[in-house]
Amino acid sequence: MVVKGTILFISPSAYPIGGVATWLDYLSKGLQEKDWRVAVGLASGRWHDAQIYKEKHECLTARPITNNTGSRGGRIRAIEDIIKKVNPELVVGVNIPDCYIAAVRSRGVNVSPKIVMTVHAIQPDFYEDAKEYAHVLDGVICTNKLACELAKVDSKLNEEQIYYAPYGVSLNSKRNIKRVLGEPLRLAYVGRLEQWQKRIHDLLPILAHLEGAGIGYQLLIAGTGPEENWINRQFGSRIERQIVQFLGEVQLHEMKKRVYERADALIVTSAWETGPIIIWEAMASGVPVVTSQYIGSGLENSLTNRKNCLTFPIGDTRAAAACIMQLMDKNVRDKLVRGGYQVINEKYNQNSSVEAWDRCFMKIMASSINNEDVKQSFKVARRGRLDRIFGIELGETVRSTFGRRYVHHSAGSEWPHSYGTRDLHDSSFWSLAKRLDKATT
Question: Deepest of 170, 320, 378, 383, by most Cβ within 10 A of its Cβ?
Fold first, then answer.
């Protein structure tokens, strides 16, 4: 076997279950089958439990990255250490921007990795990162076609540096959902319980519209997140009557049995998505999908109303309920099941996804290396008294020697997923995203 090269992914471990974690799990296995050596460096700390992440993804060759001082300099040094130990041809950042500086600093006689950024979100700060680090990035791989367009427009990257490789899921046997006339519709919500992106609060008025129309239903909610207390407060009486069942975190290997095999439909209320994997999982399992027309679905051009799913405008809870009511018709359900399975078979199965990522990595490997001098390229801000007195490098050495460390109060502070400063609700960014997402539809 001729090994193509070694890929080192640098990833957070704060969220061991979910879209990006699922992607990294199957991709690592698939790339190894395509003759890559694959290693994963997992950010570790108070808010990042690398051990739990490894337990949930036992097949990953994962190593914890420990920042003993909690500073940015400490993060960069810790990543440098793992790069030098693994000696990869490719360093791939998964929402850890400090790895780009670390990768450039690690370049030398024995270590000279290409640097790759992966984009898993449609939000302005990630594209600020792409712009900030464009001069040292050898490639940016996006999981969504709108994300590719935003990277072209909103950064300094050349078009040939931007690649597209979608998520993928395992194909399950097709099934026809058999419902007894008069049974309640069994709905499922799967994902992070938060409002800004996922619009979890839309579930409440959707259920109210169904109840007002006399439609019997059951709702399964699988996931965790900051709105968990809101779920318990707002759905309390429905949970007591078991109309709503809050399942909490559901392990990957249990999702099919505990959710998809029980559901008549998946409901997605998101404002934006780059997949999402949960839609592809549901379709692959023969579950009809009712989804918002989220930002990111336009250029992707895979969700077709009444052909492979039912769609409604973002935030239009009455329209969402009307879509759900259409599922009372078995012919509608069967048509959506067939259409959904077809789109997964053609575009979003794991084999196709792995092949796309493999092609991207091969092209980046063959490109000319970017050898910008990091000392001229980056100015890491001085933070804290030691940095101001001794400078960044010596300040970090003093901090490490005497056991001084920063205390972080969130995962994003401990291992920042972005250094962009643009507000997440920036209206000009979202106007651009909406305009681009409709460009070819």
Answer: 320
